[in-house]
Design goal:
5 strands; alpha/beta; Rossmann fold; 5-stranded parallel beta sheet; about 45% helix; single chain
Length: about 180
């Protein structure tokens, strides 16, 4: 005859074994795909990093694109500490020190979205594959932003959507590499 203590110990062992099996089975996808998420495309190897500014330089939103491009160029000057007129010293946050990104100088390339999804994807693809951009920003229309965000997700490159007002930009497909960084006004 078995006593209650033996049956309780056996039950505990079964529960522990079952739990361990569930945890092991559940973590297998993480083990086999861990490196896929650990690396990203266009890892900077030299003394600079490349940002891609994908804005409408022609088409319906060319005026907005010109404003975006001026702002991005000014931001690069601030990030690199080049001719910012002392602006960095006025910030309460000292996160920007004027030495680029992680000590690497920021350079940029531009592309013309023409306010068309296909042109925007082609432009972003060129900046990623040919120019080695680690981040793409732009998207003066929601359709353009959604199209480029999908490409950037596939390529493993950060996409910072600007001036897109549709919640589909960041909410519909829930892309891990996509961010919407401007206030909607």
């Amino acid at each position: 005859m078995t006593n209650k203590k033996d049956s309780v110990d056996a039950s505990k062992r079964k529960v522990l074994k079952g739990t361990a099996g569930i945890i092991a089975a559940g973590s297998m996808p993480l083990i086999f795909t861990g490196n896929a998420y650990g690396a990203y495309r266009n890892e900077p190897k030299g003394k600079s990093v490349t940002f891609g500014f994908n804005v409408p330089q022609t088409g319906a939103y060319a005026d907005e694109g010109a404003d975006e491009l001026r702002a991005y160029k000014l931001a690069v000057q601030h990030i690199n500490g080049e001719g910012d007129g002392g602006m960095l010293n006025t910030f309460s946050s000292k996160a920007l020190t004027g030495n680029g990104v992680n000590g690497k100088k920021v350079v940029y390339v531009t592309g013309d979205t023409q306010t068309k999804s296909d042109a925007a994807r082609a432009s972003a693809k060129r900046m990623i594959e040919k120019d080695g951009a680690i981040m793409i920003t732009g998207g003066s229309s929601s359709g353009v932003a959604i199209a480029v965000q999908g490409l950037c997700q596939e390529a493993g490159v950060i996409f910072m959507a600007g001036l897109t007002h549709s919640n589909d930009t960041t909410g519909k497909d829930k892309r891990a590499n996509g961010f919407r960084h401007f206030f909607n006004t």
